[in-house]
Queue: 2 jobs
Job 1
Amino acid sequence: SLELIDFKNALEQFQNLVEKMVIQKTKESSGLYTKDDDEIDYGKFYTTTRTLFGPAVKDHNIQAFFRKVMSNPDERPEWLEIFGCFIGESDSMPSESKESMVLLVSEKQQIAHSVVKRKDVIKGIVKVPLLHFTVTASQKGVLTVFNKQRKSFFSYSFYFHQDTAWITGCDFLPNLKYVVAVTESTILLWDYKSKESKNNGFVIKPMKNCLLCVCTVTVADNLTKDTILMGDDKGYVYLLTMTSDDFLMKQSKAEKESQFRFLDSESFNILKRKLHDDWVGKVKYISALKRFGSCSTDRINSFVLDDIKRLEDNLPVKEFSVPKGVNAFTYCGKAEVIVTGG
């Protein structure tokens, strides 16, 4: 607590110092400033800042902060910047520890790999913590797995060629170890582990309505199957359970030069229930609550949160009405709250 009080006092003195610098610079610009012993130059600013915060601040951050204030006093920087926050990394900066006696700055890493080509966009991104990788899906059909090994990322991609349908979402099947993505008319499953350039994907079709979102139901009761939730443009939420046998027994012959094999949607027991009167914007299974959620722009049945068994029967569901509907939602286990965005 004493350190906290000392830091608050030091911060207050630092902010007063910056305020004096701003007043001084403003007077200089208007020609009203007369130099005196209280003038704050870079040497005085550096010495005072170093005295207040000690080794928690770096020379290059002090210099950058001073230059920023003097070049544009009307747009003064935030005090956090004196500790290097919000300043981009560059090769010229020393590779010292990001740990500070005042603040702990999280280190970010940028993936410079060009995932998609021009006129294409990322439509889904999913982190898989247990396997330490990230899955992305682009609108025009590029599925990519970024695997972090030896403190660097390498990626391998799969291109799903399609005529008109766009990918609308993706997720990862933890038990079957497949990447799942949905397009407007199909369900795509990619065996990212396959070393073969061909026949490493499956497509389930046809789907009558346009699929808009997908997620995996994470349940630890059976490690030989995975369950998938999907939502469409007619307000339906789908439930599809798959096992490894489905890939062996239900596949049709692959077309020549094709990277995927077709599975007939009629051969699967795909459960569905109409929960909304408009597009389903997002579906998600919340493991901590053992409930699934789905949201829609429907202003009456805007958000549904209930047991996944409700997709198998016709019992009433817990639904909430939000003006103008719900576009997104998330759950915070620590605070035990669900937040929706309309």
Note: The longest helix spans residues 2-30.
Job 2
Amino acid sequence: VHQSKLDFFCKLGYSKQDICKVLENLGQEALEDDVLKELIRVGSKPQALESQVQPSLVKLVARGSCSASPRSKWLGEDGSDSSDHLRPIVIDGSNVAMSHGNKEIFSCWGIQLAVDWFRERGHTYIKVFVPLWRKEPPRQDSPIADQHILEELEKQSILVYTPSRKVKGKRVVCYDDRYIVKVAYEKDGVIVSNDHYRDLQNENPEWKWFIEQRLLMYSFVSNRFMPPDDPLGRHGPTLNNFLSKQPVLPEPKWQPCPYGKKCTYGNKCKFYHPERPHQAQLSVADELRAKIKVPLSKGQEEEQCNCSL
């Protein structure tokens, strides 16, 4: 009985000396609950608790996650700020707001959703361009929803109003798209818009390349800002690499051909064939045609003649 109780409390982490002292005081027939109460009263602690000097900094993360917090995964290996590795973001405010409002209402909440999405990723340079006349009270021909969001973003130095004025009762508006492309080009950032800026592409060849390579399109799904995972198409970079200054190139993965040795595509097959080391063989049909065109040797001709006789 003494040995069984000793083993039991040793598994709980208590030292043998404390257990023996308590058993001597209470007797060998003492109940386990009484022994445990006496150990606690004496002040004995399990060794696991005594060795735990500092609280553990390890946190549970979701399955498939790379780090403990969404921001830490964008930090560099040297612990530098994530803004050093992420591109600046320039948002076409009018395009985003009208897209969120189904092209009927200038929805400022859509701009807030886009800004919050990039903030959560760790982007620190975020600029939103909106014409100055959007500060005016909404009218029937230009309704605006949640206009107070524009004031809040302006206080945070995120929203920038492009100039506009009235001349003899007519509104003179500067071309805000030019501001958007120019700032994004100078900052080597990313343009967030569903507009293609074709007029600006024709105006400047450098802007043409930049717009084609740095334009990030998006969609709103149930008040959720969702850019595509492949901004430049199926064979282009991933969204993470697209938004990063230092993209991480994935390792090439060779997918085996599902047809195996029965594949008839030959060198046109895009899959991997272990039996074709140089992946430059002709298709089966081309191989058969080539064999037919090869002239027979003299020995083979004599054999065919003897067979015919």
Note: The two ends are 103 Å apart (CA to CA).
